[in-house]
Design a protein that fits this description.
In the C-terminal section; belongs to the PPC synthetase family. In the N-terminal section; belongs to the HFCD (homo-oligomeric flavin containing Cys decarboxylase) superfamily. This protein is of the alpha/beta class. The chain contains 13 helices and 19 strands. The chain is 32% helix and 25% strand. The protein has an 8-stranded mixed sheet with strand order 12-11-8-13-16-17-18-19, sandwiched between helices. It has a 5-stranded parallel sheet with strand order 2-1-3-4-5, with helices on both faces. Strands 6-7 form a two-stranded antiparallel sheet. Helix 4 packs across helix 7. It is globular and about 80 Å long.
Length: 411
């Protein structure tokens, strides 16, 4: 059957021998329940942690463990050839080393050599192993060849150890894989590989007293979609997130902030070596001039004192006017309620950014929803309308416009 005719994307889940192998069961469940045809290929070491029967029962397919099983089907070649995605979770230091050096001493490493689809690695190991120069060189080699290696999380490891090396959240890995698969044949292009992008997301809150603040309705979903899709296209992503309830995306460095001034500081610092900065956060234009250290009391018969506001830093205008490095691309967002395009064009000229994503907002539009529509205005006068659809689709369109512009500046 031609791959385009399949109704269920074929995913190979490779599992190597780390204690985090049991967490891969949750990833497997999410993949199968969302309609993917999953074949599990565990290493011999992985079977010490989770048995073959578990993998078979959860996937609905036989778990293939040996090169010598069903030899007439040539599994060491066919499994990788037929896959739409290969994800290795967890990927141990040993597995990463074998993959980087092209070793093929078991079924999983043979599958990696024959795969012609996107390959995702989700490492999990002790901090010292992850930070070892040998491991870092192996990761760099894999990324240079087009593989997607998700940085491990920071947290509790085996025993009492804590540090970077923790298996990323299975839900976040699933979302990462879903975004890679959604790009279809284009997923192998990795057009943002080797690039560092900074994305801001969410809304800022400007405190008035210990219990009250001036804020907005932003959920952060569009910014998180931009960060996740950029990571799936090979970028190193720094996400500066303000006041959201969303889980951190896999493979993304997240900096959590609260106020506009904190966002300003974090974005400028992260942008110092960034190829592109996308300001999707809803930044408060103003903040209370005075912060009251105690709760402002309601007094019967008296109106409250007026709240005086002062301007917050204009982050988009500042980073557009003072690019941290030559060729840096800046993308802004404009949330408008009326005269959407006219106001957007005026803002593009005023801010000086390269691209401006203009969308209409209101109580039932954009904020908090899973979908969005917009028009992307460019400084060269072109306009790209994006019809209503998932926020990931708008995010991919933004990167579709950013990537070729960055390619023009690559030495």
């Amino acid at each position: 059957m031609d791959r385009r005719e399949r109704e269920r994307p074929r995913v190979v889940l490779g599992v190597s021998g780390g204690i985090a192998a049991y967490k891969a069961c949750e990833l497997l469940r999410r993949l199968t329940e969302s309609g993917h045809d999953v074949r599990v290929v565990p290493t011999a070491s992985a079977l010490h942690f989770v048995g073959e029967a578990t993998w078979s029962a959860l996937s609905g397919n036989p778990a293939t463990t040996e090169v010598w099983e069903s030899v007439h089907e040539v599994p060491h070649v066919r499994i990788g050839q037929a896959a739409d995605l290969v994800v290795v979770a967890p990927a141990t230091a040993d597995l990463l080393a074998k993959a980087a050096h092209g070793l093929a001493d078991d079924l999983l490493t043979n599958t990696l050599l024959t795969a012609r689809c996107p390959v995702v690695f989700a490492p999990a190991m002790h901090t010292e192993m992850w930070e070892n120069p040998a491991t870092q060189e192996n990761v760099a080699t894999l990324r240079r060849r087009g593989a997607l290696v998700i940085d491990p999380a920071v947290g509790r490891l085996t025993g009492v150890d804590t540090g970077k090396g923790r298996f990323p959240d299975p839900a976040a890995i699933f979302e990462f894989c879903r975004r890679v698969l959604a790009r279809g044949p284009r997923a192998a292009e990795q057009d943002l590989a080797g690039r560092h992008v900074v994305v801001s997301a969410g809304g800022t809150r400007e405190p008035l007293d210990p219990v009250r603040y001036l804020g907005n309705r932003s959920s952060g979903k569009q910014g998180y979609a931009l960060a996740g899709t950029a990571a799936a296209r090979g970028a190193r992503v720094t996400l500066v997130a303000g006041n959201t309830e969303l889980p951190d995306p896999a493979g993304v460095d997240v900096i959590h902030i609260g106020t506009a001034r904190q966002l300003h500081e974090a974005v400028l610092k992260a942008a110092a070596d960034a190829d592109a900065v996308v300001m999707a956060a809803a930044v408060a234009d103003f903040r209370p001039a005075v912060y009251t250290t105690g709760k402002i009391k309601k007094v019967d018969g008296q109106e409250p004192e007026p709240v005086t506001l002062v301007r917050n830093p204009d982050i988009l205008a500042e980073i557009s006017a003072e690019r941290a490095r030559p060729g840096q691309l800046v993308v802004g967002f404009a949330a408008e309620t009326d005269d959407v395009l006219a106001n957007g064009r005026a803002k593009l000229a005023r801010k000086g950014c390269d691209l401006l994503v203009v969308n209409e907002v209101g109580e039932t539009k954009a904020f908090g929803s899973d979908g969005n529509e917009a028009v992307i205005l460019a400084a060269d006068g072109t306009e790209t309308p994006v019809p209503y659809g998932p926020k990931e689709a708008l995010a991919d369109t933004v990167w579709d416009l950013v990537a070729p512009r960055l390619a023009e500046t690559r030495p």
